[in-house]
Specification:
about 400 residues, alpha+beta, Aminopeptidase, twelve-stranded mixed β-sheet, two-stranded antiparallel sheet, about 30% strand, binds coenzyme A
């Protein structure tokens, strides 16, 4: 039998879960991680954002707060040949050339479906992305979700006044309209709500810089505030307050018109996230500031890092309660955490952070600390009922 010349050489498969990330059935996690690394290197010039297989496996193994739908496009038939296979699943492991993921919050934001579609650069413009997107659109509809989110990362903003730049509904930033992900998402009917800026702080900082920020912020904050720093897991005495701060962050972060509601955080959820971090072979540094007269945690900042990626650390949450703002506590928790980070991770070469362009106060602190712009992401949204089928059916 011969294959028609225009027959697809790929098909969609639900990504199987497996008892462990090194199990042969975990091939999809390895395929997706390889694919995302290739996409990052080709589109962004780095693979800092690419998940490792264990990151994907852990998200699928713990779905109590966010459920995951994963579908992969794998090569079939004659085109598979010697391109197939890998360490995981041996030569029989399908070759992943595209993937689609849907994150479905289950304890809050139950209206949301957050989609990710990515296709190997060598396999684009063959309809794989459209087929993956259509699978996700239908899954989101079946789940009763009403709002679709997607993000498109970019390496650099087009210059001001550049033709073909898309501007968000709110806040600063621009995105090139001919970025493949932008063209694809806009064709599906998604609109650009805000731009999120990625910034990088190159390490090590010159001697005395962090200490200067700590001293300045501490002097401004005064004796009413006391700083605590822990390597996760945090002590039981503070876990509920740290969880409350995470909830507050989700409520207060300026998100423009994104249809986000506050996340429901408690100590149990905080411990689940800590446990997932540990399973992903990641560590976290948490610095919190206590308002001494009341014993209240007024703010906190978290740095997270994978032990097998010694060069890179990610800034996670930073928040200060509204009633404690204006005392330089945001700078204090970040600077103290940076000082501690230099002690425990001296080999790290950069810290990466994301801030919505609508979040002036947080951006100002990061710029003051020396973070430089390093690309960003388009934050896109549409009512699910208005998202176009990309497959004409
Ligand atoms: C966006 C992406 C998934 C598209 O995958 P793909 O397999 O090339 O997509 P398709 O071939 O199914 O394209 C469907 C339609 O999207 C639009 N499109 C896709 N890529 C485009 C590009 N580079 N320029 C203009 N339009 C494009 C076109 O309308 C296309 O239909 P057409 O080929 O008939 O003109 C892929 O480029 C990618 O992985 N980008 C990086 C990750 C990303 O940004 N993901 C999107 C956010 S979730």
């Amino acid at each position: 039998m011969t294959t028609a010349p225009d027959a697809p050489t790929w098909r969609l498969v639900d990504a199987p879960h497996a008892p462990g990330v090194d199990h042969p059935d975990a091939w999809a996690y390895h395929g997706i991680a390889d694919l995302e690394r290739a996409v990052g290197l080709a589109d962004l010039g780095h693979d800092d954002l690419a998940p490792r297989p264990v990151d994907l496996w852990v998200e699928s193994a713990h779905q109590e707060h966010v459920r995951q739908v994963r579908v992969v496009a794998v090569e079939t038939g004659a085109a598979t040949g010697d391109e197939q296979g890998g360490e995981h699943g041996g030569d029989s492991a399908p070759r992943v050339v595209g993937h689609g993921a849907l994150a479905l919050p289950v304890v809050d934001n139950r209206h949301l479906a957050m989609a990710r579609v990515a296709v190997l650069p060598s396999h684009r413009r063959r309809g794989i992305g459209a087929a993956l997107a259509e699978h996700l659109r239908r899954a989101a509809l079946l789940e009763g979700r009403s709002t679709l989110f997607a993000e498109v990362e970019f390496a650099a903003e087009p210059p001001a006044g550049a033709a073909g730049a898309v501007v968000p509904r709110e806040g600063d930033g621009r995105v090139a309209a001919d970025l493949p992900g932008m063209a694809f998402a806009r064709r599906a009917g998604l609109g650009l709500e805000i731009v999120s800026r990625r910034s990088v702080l190159d390490l090590p900082l010159p001697p005395g810089v962090v200490e200067g920020f700590v001293a300045g912020a501490a002097a401004h904050a005064g004796d009413a505030y006391r700083v605590h720093t822990w390597q996760a897991p945090v002590p039981d005495a503070w876990v509920d307050q740290l969880a409350a701060l995470e909830g507050r962050l989700s409520q207060d972060e300026p998100n423009g018109g994104l249809a986000l509601e506050a996340e429901a955080w408690d100590g149990v959820r905080f411990r689940v996230e800590e446990g997932k971090f540990a399973e992903r072979a990641k560590g976290a540094l948490v610095t919190a500031v206590e308002h001494v007269p009341t014993g209240t945690l007024a703010g906190m900042s978290i740095l997270g890092y994978a032990h097998d990626r010694p060069g890179l650390t990610e800034q996670e949450s930073t928040v200060v309660l509204p009633e404690h703002r204006g005392h330089r506590l945001g700078m204090l928790v970040k600077a103290v955490n940076l000082r501690e980070h230099a002690r425990v991770r001296p080999a790290t070469r950069r810290i990466s952070t994301w801030n919505n362009e609508t979040n002036g106060p947080m951006l100002a602190i990061n710029v003051a600390l020396g973070f430089r712009p390093a690309g960003g992401s388009a934050e896109l949204q549409a009512p699910l009922a208005e998202v176009a089928s990309m497959c004409g059916g």
